[in-house]
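Sharing in case it's useful to others searching the archive later.

Someone asked me privately for the predicted structure of 3-oxoacyl-ACP synthase III family protein, so I'm posting the question and my answer publicly. Question first, with the sequence:
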Amino acid sequence: MRIVALSEVLPGEPVTNRDLAEKFGLHEQWLDSMTGNRSRYFCRLDTARDVPKSTGDLAYEAARKAMADAGVEPEDIEFLILTTASPDHLMPATVNLVADRLGINNIPTLQLTSGCAGALQGLFTAKALLASGYRQGLVIGADTCLKMWPSAKDSRQMKPAEMVNFALFGDGGGAAVVSADKDGPGLVVEHLFLRGIGLGRKPAQIVKWFGAEGAIGGEAMGEEDYKAIERHVPDIARQILDELVKTQAWELAEVEHVLTPQLNGVMTEKIREGLGVRPDQAVNCVAETGNNGNALPFIQLRRLMEKIKAGSGQKGRVLVATVESSKWIMAGMALRHA
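And my answer, the predicted structure tokens:
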């Protein structure tokens, strides 16, 4: 499988730590030091008409941009995959609404409910479809926190489990056009694995469908065991990279680019240091974009490709590690710049 083109969509203007501090009564310095995220982006219903306002909007824009970059038309797409933790509706599936807007019809459409490993789950599925005989497809990752925004109640009374979504997370979309043809520019996928490792593990993150306004009896819209994430994600990231370099017979120190799990700026830096990944190898964006879930690896890869095109990044080998803590999923990918 070859990744032919990538895209990135961030809605509206960046929301800074000062903005969050003023809205939620938090301390700007605490947000800076505890999260390491300087900004993030949120969909809002009152933004300009051309600014994405939903998961579907983000997914559509990301798909449109990736297709334009690849120079493909709707009739060239043979399957469409959307990975998201925040679909616009339970039914119809957001992927089918996006397909309609793109002018795509008569092909398989798949929607995967997923979190931080979602981009690689989508690519894993795409790789299997390409191996079965399809020639070209589109994989999208998109997420929004829109359903988590309070409207009727005072945001300053939000529970910590609710506020963390605004400190760590953000909205965004990203997409990849993928091809079974390994010849041509882009990123060739040399190895990709995906495993659920949640047997006997408690979920470290739970997000309720009802969102901020649908709770009964004061029930929190979400729960997050940050200590469990902090404890386990670095070890799982190490396992992913160890497996990738062993499979590929690559030395980690000689790999040009490494994409590590990106919950927030502080943890990303700790993971990088713990893995022995040099700053010049690391491809990070979470401090600027927030953790936009399914979109984030696509955004990382797009920014890497932009650096390479601009001449400020090296061509060569790329390692990607993603960890989903909701019920524990690990995924890794080895790429080579074509």
